[in-house]
Amino acid sequence: MKAAVVFEKGSIPQYTDFPEPEIITDNDVLVSVKAASIKNLDRARASGNHYSADNEAFQPKIIGSDGVGYLENGTKVYFFSKKGSVAEKVVADRQLVVPIPENLDFSVAAALPNAVMGSAMGLKCKAEMQQGDTILINGATGITGRIAVQIAKLYGAGKVIVTGRNEAALQSLLELGGDEAVSLLRDDEGFKQKIKEIHAETPIDVILDYIWGHSVEMILTALKGDGTFSHKTKLVSVGGMSGDHIQLSSQILRGTDIQISGSGLGSWTKEESQLLFSEIIPGMFPAATEGKIKIETEVVDLEYIESAWNKEIQNGKRLVIRI
């Protein structure tokens, strides 16, 4: 079969022949793949630089972590697999397979789940978001941040504040459900003051963060308590595009009712992971067919994976490989 395969760490995936997968256990199902999205997770795992690949011995492997296609009985499905997904056929665990509405486009179905995972799991499981909560999405102008805005509204957020550097993309989030935009291009003091003003007017219940780094330092400083009672705020880290480290004053933790956690592979309990495939992702596909969640894609055929791998994709779009 044809597949996109990485033969060495850091190398570009090759369009090549690869042995067809085999059914080994009763939990295995064979999927004829029709599309698979390419994400930062997939690039990091392909290079061996993602934390989930730290203990793996590198060997030639099919890239990708999830995709969409047909089961042998003709059922249209989404699947997740650590064995790769950008190939004509893939074996997946039947517990990590979700049916897709027949009228949902394959490219949308392939692009949506990863963007949903961190945000929906962060909001529902880590932050235990409630109806009417005020949500701050830091670094919301990327593809996953755009989905997070829509999911927050879908889950009943009372107010959604968005931050980002791309002014045009930031303003477009107001059309997707964002209520107020704060530019990260402001000077530090101006940014912190704006967050303070928002927090005083409508206390921030949840911070969903995609970029970490200096912007998170500023947000935490803006929320810092003054020794009196403070509002409980939950900060959930979903990404680290601005770096993996921050400086965190212990005074912020002692003087502020702040809870910090993460949402990603390894942070979810077994029960939460089951919820992802039994409730969260299955609920997002109908929302997409009804237009309640929108995602844009750029589709490239499998044979062009080498040129597409490092291609600059328009902001707000997800690269999808058609198979």
Can you describe what's shown?
By secondary structure, the chain is of the alpha/beta class. The chain folds into 2 domains: 127 residues, Medium-chain alcohol dehydrogenases, catalytic domain (Quinone Oxidoreductase, Chain A, domain 1, Alpha-Beta Complex), CATH 3.90.180; 147 residues, Quinone Oxidoreductase, Chain A, domain 1. Helices cover 31% and strands 25% of the residues. Strands 3, 5, 6, 7, 8, 15 and 16 form a 7-stranded mixed sheet that branches. It has a 6-stranded parallel sheet with strand order 11-10-9-12-13-14, sandwiched between helices. It has a 3-stranded antiparallel sheet with strand order 2-1-4, with no helix packed on it. Helix 7 links the parallel strand 13 and strand 14. It is elongated, with a radius of gyration of 20 Å.
The second-level CATH architecture of the largest domain is Alpha-Beta Complex
Give the end-to-end Cα distance, rounded to a whole number of Å: 11 Å
Q: Number of helical segments?
A: 9
Average pLDDT figure:
93
List keywords for this structure.
323 residues, alpha/beta, Quinone Oxidoreductase, Chain A, domain 1, seven-stranded mixed β-sheet, six-stranded parallel β-sheet, 31% helix, elongated
